[in-house]
Amino acid sequence: MENEPKSLRALFTEAEAKRQELDSFPNPNSTPFQELLAAAIATYEECLRVVAQVGLFSPNETLDDISSGDLQYMLINYHLAELLLRITGGDRKSYLKDARVDYERFLKLLDSYDILSKSDARLLEKYLDNEDTFSMASTTDAAARRETKISRFKEEKELKRKLEYLKQNPTALENDDSALRQIQLTNIALCVSQTFQSLESIALEMQILALAPPVPPAGQPRGLADSRQREGRGSDEYSERLDGPTSRLLSSSGPILSSDGKPLRPFTLLDTRHRLQQGVFRPDHSLPTMTIDEYLEEEKRRGGIIEGGGEQSGIRPEPDEDDLEKADEETIKARAWDEFKEENPKGSGNTLNRG
Asked: Considering the entire predicted model, what is its pTM?
């Protein structure tokens, strides 16, 4: 291992530079990003071929037999899987399967050197038992799943803090082999935690993709989008509306509900087709339902309009000069009011401001 070819170090440095350059692209779907991504993947694959040629890792070795500088090459499969997941377009299932294989090789390599912790080793066994439904926590117990996520988050946070602390003095790492070894192992532990999360995400995505309709072979025309187009394309009755025609909604052929209460066909609670048509192009605000004359006529019918004068109308009737009795009553009333004003002059009741 000490006689490691320089080409491996050069290839790995080149691959790392390309991988880090990918983070500077704002759009991962752009053509330059995908081209650089393909170049980085090819470089990592070349690194794997060189590692296999020189026999860098052997099942007969232990972790102590690997030099601190060679520990970084254990992450080649991990980086390769991460890059495969960033590919857009093409056969997504194929990329997911390839990434899962690389993640699995990465974990098995670490397990052969007893680098995995006990909890990570149990997760690896759980993954190998059923990779299609792998989950880091119980999918039925929400509390246990939450606790697992919290503990994983705290673990990753602590690893990142430790890794950042060890990287604060890069010059010291060149002369301190133990510090370099510690930073490499810490980085590997962080990648292991992220690997299990990626494997869980891959399993979920594979389940979703399994429900998608199969892609037709190249050269075969795609079928029409739905039954409406298959049945009505080219006919006068075809419509781009999502709902069916009104005649279908109001069709009275066949029962609406089954014996156990399940609806057998679409139905509406409105009574007539005319009401359906009226409610299509009406404005958002409420329209008047009667004219002003109709409203006044309705108020008159309900007794809300007073007619014919009287005391309630507030109109005083004209005095009748021929009615002598009425005139005498008015005269007596006026004289009584005059006498009252003479007996009670203005201000006579104000006793507070008198001197």
From this structure: 0.57
